Amino acid sequence: MKTASKCFLLPLFLFTVVSFSSELVLIPENILDVRTGKLIKGSIHIKNDTIVSISNEIKSSSLNIIELNGITLMPGLMDAHVHLIGNNELNGYESISESSEMATLYGVKNAKNTLLAGFTTVRNVGAGNFADVALRDAIKKGVVLGPRMIVSGPTLSISGGHGDNNLLPFDSNINEENHNIVNSPWEARKAVRINRKYGADLIKFTATGGVMSKNTDVNARQFTLEEMTAIVDEAHSHGMKVAAHAHGLKGITTAIKAGVDSVEHASFINEDAIDLAIKKGTFLSMDIYVSDYILGEGAKKGILEESLAKERTVGKLQRKNFMLAHSKGASMVFGTDAGIYDHGDNAKQFKYMVQFGMTPLEAIQASTINTANLFGIEMIGEVKKGFKADIIGVSSNPLKDISILEEIVFVMKNGVIYKDETN
Ligand code: ARG
Fold it and tell me: Is 414 in the pocket of ligand 1 (CB under 6 A)?
């Protein structure tokens, strides 16, 4: 980086975000237009948190000018499925020893690692005690560093479902009291209302069992159509989106019929369900890297043997069905389930998306344009006039080698530079 002034780097040192009311110009080698895949020449003029123009002239000499020689700039990446709250090294029974306070402190570290890896917006789908709401707000206020967060609060689940805590005995007395464990349409509506009241932006529920939960079946549908419809209707009536965790086909199909905005995992989806998703405009968020981590590291990291056994079938089929969904033209977003593995390693999934059928540009669009659509946030996900100044930099063309996204050298969010390792 060559720069007239380093004032935009200030937050790195102070660990606090100052709101700048100034202007700067970034002059990169080129800019990736993620809509067309074209590399564009030009300098990016940023005022406060917004890109005000991209042009070849620099209007005033009083501006901060940052030359990024050899660097390709592109929009900040987005991940539609993360779990920032908690220490991801704790698995199985060890996980119940973690206090909410400790989980939140780990969240602070995880949020920073995620931002510095180039992810400027993430959707956090499931966190206890609304710790995700607190983290989102602390980031917004500049108390801690992290991506823009869209958060769900506690996941809604049936009793004994994937979103319940199934590790404790009945006489521990805590599980049946939780407001997010619901067993009828009206309980479900109440839980949506409570999540909204305490600050959730969207609703996440579990429509099938899961890999990482004890004593749940990935093929079993959890919640009836009536319950799922109640959740979606209640959430949508408050302008909240709904994400449904679902591996098995019955749960996937029921969730799509109920009108969810995204299906998470979608492992055993088939042609008919893909067609239905396309017809209803449902996004698919398929986390096709995490299986390698679970099967490679899981035993060492204390993941339960029954989870490893489930993963042995889920991972393979999910990748096959990712190819199918992509080839049929489903709307797909980038969602990783980071939190099972280290935060900041999110971009490892890009190569898998390319290996399983996407072009590098499509994989990048899944993490920019498509996520912005799913999140319902306008003016993010592209480096264009009027868009939020969420801009990241890489040292070579990611369309030629997608794995360069694992080595982000420049990160700006809302017009503030958080990382500059260019030289
Ligand atoms: N949170 C998910 C679950 O426990 C993770 C699934 C991971 N496996 C996969 N192949 N995507 O069900």
Answer: no
